[in-house]
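Example record used in the benchmark description.
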Amino acid sequence: MTQGLDEGSSIPLYAQLRELLKGQIREGAFVPGERIPSEDKLNGMYGVSRITVRRALQELVEEGYLVKCPGKGTYVSERIPGMSAQSKVRAKFTQNNDVQSFTEACESNNQRAGAHLISIEEVDGIDEARDFFGFGSEGRLLRVLRIRTADRTPIMVEENYFPAGEYGFLRKADFEDTSLYDIIAASGHGDPMLTEPCALDLEKAPADLAPYLDVPVGEPLFCLVGRYFDADGSAMYLGKQHIVGTRYTFRI
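Model output (structure tokens):
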């Protein structure tokens, strides 16, 4: 007899583990957005093989109870089957660039803003940076990719590009549940400023971002692109927000 599982049952162990974990999720032992124990920990907790654990988790992913985030772990889905859907986060978007920050939008909805770093890496210059940064496509950039959540519901992936030399300090910054503006301001660079219209377009969730947003590949997303400057009018960063359209409302 393994912990909570019956080896003598005609029901396979992976199916027993699947139903046990499913029950824990529905009862609130694991809440939406929470990372569940690793395969190794589940193996130790229930005394079953890694293959058994992996099959149970995979079936829970297929049923919509769990979502796997590459390099991060397995999390409880924000849209548990048969349970009430998450509310939208409402923000305002105006043509004069008076854009409410994500943190402010969450506060206005009595929700808690969260942030989790996905990756930070140095990359080659991109076409959009050619004129903005003034160093052409040959310039090196820091690409900061992180997910923003509201009450642990994934809302958007932020994809920001900074000049690699001047903003090298970002490599050591703590991005966990921290405002990007606060990180930049603390370094002495001042608050980012928008002085020109943003571009709002539609896109389909690509395979590399969909798991972080807990949506299927091809899900319609908003893509909001803005060019941010410092107080002296110098280019600070190029920002892209990949936003789940069903969870976010722009007020124009």
